[in-house]
Amino acid sequence: MKVVLLIASIIFLSACDQKNKYTVSYIERSAPKFIAAENNPGGQTTVANQTQPSFQLPAANLADELKPNFHAGKALANQPWVKAPTVTFARDGLGPVYNARTCLMCHIKGGKGFIPNNNETPVRGTLVRLSKVLEQQDLSVHSELIKQAGVIPHPMYGDQIQGQSVSLAHQLRHSQKPGTIKHDVPPEAYVHINWIEKTFTYPDQHQVSLRKPELDFKYLGYGPLGDDTQFSLRVAPTIHGMGLLGLIAEQDLIALADAKDKNNDGISGRVNQVWDVEKQATVVGRFGLKSNKPSLAMIVGGAFTNDVGITNSLAPKQPCTELQTACLKIPNGNDKQGVELPDNLLELVINFNRDLAPVQRRNSQDVSVLAGRELFYQVGCNQCHNPRFVTQKSDTAPHLSEQVIWPYSDLLLHDMGPELADGRPDYLATGSEWRTAPLWGIGLLHKVNGSKVFLHDGRARSIEEAILWHGGEANQAKAQFIQFEKLDRDDLINFVNSL
Ligand code: HEC
Ligand code: HEC
After folding, report:
1. Fewer C-beta within 10 Å: the chain N or C terminus?
2. 236 alpha carbon to ligand 1 midpoint, in Å?
3. Domain span at residue 386?
4. Residue 5: inside a domain, yes or no?
């Protein structure tokens, strides 16, 4: 009998190994032995850390002949778009309403966006998404829409607030008192933030101030938003290593999911299922803060149209809703295919995003960092911030193929509790679920562009604050962190900063 059991368990274990052979050792509660590969979060794509670290470099192993394309894509993501029509035919079509003139005005130098610290200036590098509450009776009316968009957009404002417009009156706004000039196409709103501060006290009496944002819309351009509108404030995340994340096998993500929490550890990652326009199919979502986008192509195409107002074959409709009639009438920068950005240029920007390299870790052998590494596994941060994957084979991007990568995310949705909830569902993601934020490069954020804000809405100003906001499925991990002595808390934070 014993022998049978033993054989059965060997078969079972090796089946598990087969299923998820690269990640299985890293979801244990004790840290595996440190290996040198951990220093290179992007495998062979990893670039060296420099005095002025950069999230804008191409993969270290990118073939020389692909580098000009990388730089062309970067230029398209970095140089301002202008209003149509102009002589600079290739760069017009901005807006009519938009959030920023370039991608990298939000993803500054490839790093995180900025969020104002006070109510005086409106947000720029930060988005407000919005949608209507889904009532049961809406399901049949909107089923196709929800299948395609994940949410019911606001009928007047669409699914995000665009705070800028190409209207001359708006462009002159900085010389006028806002609200005093009549806009032909008004920007949708200026979003300001009130920060509500509270103090958190550890059992050892050490105190930390935590702040939470409250939205303050000024100068709504198209009338009231209505009570049943849901909002979600989102600061631009980092964009390095995207191509590597895109190459994690769907089975690997599904293998990490534990929707019903069968292993009873309080943590139940779920996959989001989202609509892929290119494939005309529902697939596992992995990009976006609620894993609400299926592919890099879809998030870049969507960002061009919705954030910059540059339409393309993946998101061909101007960022105006049917009710914004003046917006729809403004001249566009369309080419013969009826969009503002031809496919070859869109591809350059997609590939620029794909090839942005993660940066080497620092100080991984420090005594404190190594101690923090132990604690990271011990309290179960790794249960969501999954350390390691191996990317799939890729013929189109051989440099990203079969790389051992260390993103510290499972790309799954986790219920993070009421404090972090935005109350805005997106496809299968509920109003309190978020995708585990990848932690690679996190310790370099401040050096890269001066921004140092964490969590979806940028409320946390340090790693410590970010941890203290964790709730829901992360409650147990946080509770252990809080009980630690200050020195241990610092070790854990030093480890995260070394990633
Ligand atoms: C107004 C600021 C803003 C602009 C402009 C902007 N983005 Fe973003 N970007 C964001 C935010 C916020 C998110 C998170 C979106 C979400 O989950 O709702 C995001 C998400 C992304 C992601 C996914 C990151 C991840 O971890 O899944 C990529 C890639 C990206 N943007 C690329 C681009 C590109 C390319 C452009 C230009 C065409 C662009 N963005 C323009 C704010 C911006
Ligand atoms: C149940 C899953 C889960 C566990 C356990 C967990 N996290 Fe997270 N973590 C998340 C999710 C989801 C987010 C994104 C939340 C958001 O944006 O509001 C996040 C965000 C973060 C961030 C902010 C990253 C950024 O760039 O904004 C840090 C830092 C972080 N976690 C560290 C930790 C540490 C350290 C631990 C262990 C003490 C831990 N987490 C445990 C799921 C988890």
Report:
1. N
2. 6
3. 22-497
4. no
